């Protein structure tokens, strides 16, 4: 019995040692906390560079270069590569790897957190992205100016598909709508987990993102406020969402708050004034959707927050603007019946009442936002 235990223990130690060796590269231990899965298949690397359309005159931004497998291929093709790497150990390895090569002088390494560094000018972005920051990474790129030509990025497969799917697909969500408002998204290729060292638990996919030019003329703060509310219950009809007591109370509270600000300030205070004035100036924080308003307005009840997918710090600012033509100048004149009437006016336009966010196109959301604005309701 004791002999059997010793043998089992020896096997366990051998397996553990072998696993540690497989998860390392030339003495560098890959860290799961950093999402480090190094792409090892050269055919996939070549395909990403080719699909990325990298030109010999391009400045390429690479996010999370790791040990440099993709970086080395990019240096052979592009004029310059700017690599942003968070792990100091990988920075040292990358510097060692390019040292003495013909293209070493064409590489610039920025050591730091991608979400915190100021991005330099670049023509295209090519990256095997750290999966844990996928969403803020995408929207930070899309908020960068001057606008880049395209980004070819590898993500966890489910996230990648959410970026590209059409209305009606089970994966269609707020991320899909927001990303596709700002860019054309195309699925390029699927990458199996065994193409990485160490293998992740999920498959991956490569997506090409091409920023829209010109950008759609819409205030992104208003857009995101509306879309967030609609996708709180994406399979519920808009009539069911906007007739809910919690939503109507929220609209009423915020409507009154803005009216009070107008009276006290002696001038109109609109969501459009508070917003970016267009998607071209939105920040990555705004796009990342941590909150929906800087001011503390009317709130959902705890039940309402849970039902509509809003956290404790997520609020919706709504304003009647100066263009509604309703002649409402007194806060006391804003009643639940008045608010309900405005909402019903919107719902009864173009069949919105029976629409569901899960099946609504970009044009549907744009028309819905415009109709709310015409009725004097703004989201910020």
Automatic annotation (TrEMBL):
GO molecular function, one term: rRNA (adenine-N6,N6-)-dimethyltransferase activity
Highest taxon in the source lineage: Eukaryota
EC primary class: transferase
Protein residues bound to S-adenosyl-L-methionine: 37, 39, 64, 85, 113, 128
InterPro entries in the cross-refs: KsgA/Erm, rRNA_Ade_Mease_Trfase_CS, rRNA_Ade_methylase_Trfase_N, rRNA_adenine_dimethylase, SAM-dependent_MTases_sf
Keyword annotations: Methyltransferase, RNA-binding, rRNA processing, S-adenosyl-L-methionine, Transferase
Domain (Ribosomal RNA adenine methylase transferase N-terminal): residue spans on this chain: 44-213
Family the UniProt entry places it in: Belongs to the class I-like SAM-binding methyltransferase superfamily. rRNA adenine N(6)-methyltransferase family.
Classification via PANTHER family: DIMETHYLADENOSINE TRANSFERASE, DIMETHYLADENOSINE TRANSFERASE-RELATED
Protein name in the entry: rRNA adenine N(6)-methyltransferase
